[in-house]
Amino acid sequence: MEEYKSHNENCFSARRQSAADRRSQGRRNNIVDRRGDLDRRRGPGRRRPDDRKSAEEGQMTDEQFEFIMAVDQYKKLNSRPFPTWTEVLDIIKTLGYRKVAEPCSLKDLQNQASSKK
Questions:
Q1: Model pTM?
Q2: Taking the chain, what is the end-to-end CA distance rounded to the nearest angstrom?
Q3: What is the DSSP string of 35-91?
Q4: Is the pLDDT of residue 27 over 90?
């Protein structure tokens, strides 16, 4: 007996062949690139980080953005994905923040912030 193929094997191989033919027909030949020049330069799949995007869209103050960038830099330099609170306090002090006001409650601080708006 030379090569014996059952009816099922012939049927499956014909299905596989027709699926391969459909894939190779080049359905993507007529796609138009609608991305802007900036997106094209950045490359496919490259997006701006959320913090940078928020800062550029005005959802973040300069102080907030500076703090986030300082924390990000600290994490990269020290290979620490999650800095401890002590490390966060060190980052804040490195940015130049010092305790100069008298302690107050969070509620008072929120009231002061809302009255300034």
A1: 0.47
A2: 91
A3: --HHHHHH-TT----HHHHHHHTTSS-HHHHHHHHHHHHHHHHHT-SS--HHHHHHH
A4: no
